[in-house]
Amino acid sequence: MSTATAALSGPTGSVQQPAEIRVYNTLTKTKELLQPINPPRIGMYLCGPTVYAESHIGHMVGPVIFDTIKRFLRYSGYQVTWVVNITDVDDKLIAKSRERKIPMSQIAVEMTADYLANLRELGVNQIDFLPRATDHMEQIVDFIRKLQEKGFAYEADGDVFFEVAKDPHYGQLSNRSIDSMQGDGGEAAGKKRAAGDFALWKSARAGEPAWDSPWGQGRPGWHIECSAMSHAILGETFDIHGGGLDLMFPHHENERAQSGCCHGAPMVKYWMHNGLMRAGDKGKVGGKSDREADTDDVVGKISRSRGAGGLSDLIRRQTGERIRFFLLRTHYRSTIVYGEDGLDEAGTSLAAFYRFFERFAEVTGQSFYELPAPETRDQGAIDPRGDEALHECVALRDRFLAAMDDDFNTALAISTLFDLLRAANRHLDKHDLTAASSTESPAVETLRVIGGILRDLTAVLGLFRKPPLDQTTDRSDAELTSRLMQVLIDLRKDARDKKDFATGDRIRDRLAEIGVALLDKKEGTLWERKS
Ligand SMILES: [Zn+2]
User: Distance, CA 368 to ligand 1 centroid (Å)?
Assistant: First the structure.
């Protein structure tokens, strides 16, 4: 099967195996060929949330992108270990705990659960490790001790700081000179040797959660958590470190300094930064991915603009699939312009796919959602067998893969999916395929293969995991479904009252096709889903 792709050299050009994947490295400011340190293994780390409040759509940008990147790398033959950390000790958590008069750990547990539930709804299910800072205190303290022993850190009155001037590579990632560094001021400012030095360990104030250390009771700074946890799971040097552009300085610059100085080896081979989110009508940047993000920022406000509540309500209104699709329609390095009308548009686009999947099921007798998704590129390669429609679709598959090979260009990949959808619909129309067509006919067989290609590629993007009716079952809009069903039941009753039994039957039959049965009872018409 795999020879078919290699043999194809159509006008769109074809991708030769093994795939050459290019990644834009923020450190070198160039697209580089992805050459993992220990192929086929790839270690990947993404800075996760500070769990002090419910997440908003801005927090989902990085996870959706890196979930997709992991899917594509796996599909391309790599074994990826993906780590997303949870910051569960921090000033904001402490403030929240005082405000709500409950322990910090309880807030962290609640907000982590909220974050994970949202990730699930958006189809982010590729994370291998979700380490929490409070579970890694020993590694964090060890890390700081080592930095102090090597002369990169100094203690001042129970606090420990990293001495930026000792690291000759400091500032390379974010392109800054040490002279331009501004410290964060505050109480600690007077203890530092230079304004740009940053805290590794903070001494405890009365009533704050604290851990034992060689410098007394205290808690870690934010940056050291990522250095210690990525080291604990992925080792001294790993392949990919991701995060929002807002994290490049100071957070990633500081992680890089801590890890590089502690181990005498570079922390990361490829630094990847995703663009931030901008509200469509305000022109302000929001949706930051780190603890600087505030649920009151622009995107947070806008994501709630059409109703109360945060992201979970947005998911109820729009579905996780729409949000995922919307986020992937922009290339990850570009700014995502957010507005709920963009999600509505995503819904319209997805509906065109859902309609094709229904026609596909009618004609082939097979559910699109149950088609097996190939696990690798080779498995997904198709022999077009001289079939014109398949030839076009195989060329489009190559174009999709070439887009993903070029720094994970999901925007271009998705536009190719639309071309595939058009080709599939053209094929259906040209051969006038309907439920009555013979499932043995060559045209139906071709349709099956085209459906298989769509299954293959959309699975790489984490789309169409389940039918729209099954989406977001626990947080789902059960209420909306029941109201929509009532609309259909009323329309059917109106038709029957006017003796238009054909329309009445059509409504019932179409619902039956999607697994919904209508039951006419004395008290009215009820409905139920057939499993
Ligand atoms: Zn981090």
Answer: 39
Alpha-carbon Rg for the chain in angstroms: 27
Helix, strand, or coil (residue 75): helix
Exposure on the CB side of residue 257, measured as CA atoms within 13 A: 32
**Residue 482 corresponds to which tokens in the numbers above?**
């029941």
pTM of the model: 0.83
Return d(Cα 87, Cα 112) in angstroms, integer.
Answer: 10
Q: pLDDT tier at 5 (50, 70, 90 boundaries)? A: very low
Nearest-angstrom CA–CA distance, 350 and 357: 11
Residues comprising the chain, all counted: 531
What is the 218 CA–ligand 1 centroid distance (Å)?
A: 20
What was the pLDDT predicted at 231? 98
Query: How far apart are the CA of 164 and the centre of ligand 1, in A?
Result: 18
The arrangement of strands across the sheet holding 268-274 comes to 79-84, 41-46, 238-244, 268-274
Residue 201: how many CB atoms within 10 A of its CB? 25
Q: Which residue shows structure tokens 């990361």?
A: 268
Least trusted range by pLDDT, from 11-20, 82-91, 417-426: 11-20
Ligand 1 ion: residues within 5 Å (CB):
47, 226
**Spatial separation of the C-alpha atoms in residues 197 and 191, rounded to whole Å:** 10
Ligand 1 mean position, distance from CA 231 (Å): 12
Q: Residues 435, 440, 441, 446: is their CA dihedral positive or negative?
A: positive
Task: Order the strands of the 198-203 sheet from edge to edge.
Answer: 153-156, 159-162, 198-203, 218-220
249 C-alpha to ligand 1 centroid (Å)? 11
Give the Cα separation of 407 and 386 in Å (integer): 32
- Cα of 48 from ligand 1 centre, angstroms: 7
CA distance 310 to 325: 19
Q: How far is the CA of 177 from the centre of ligand 1 (A)?
A: 21
Q: Predicted confidence band at 189 (pLDDT cuts at 50, 70, 90)? A: confident
Helices (H) and strands (E) in the chain, counts: 17, 15
List % helix, strand, coil for the chain (3-state, nearest 5).
50, 15, 35
pLDDT bucket at 186, cuts 50 / 70 / 90? low
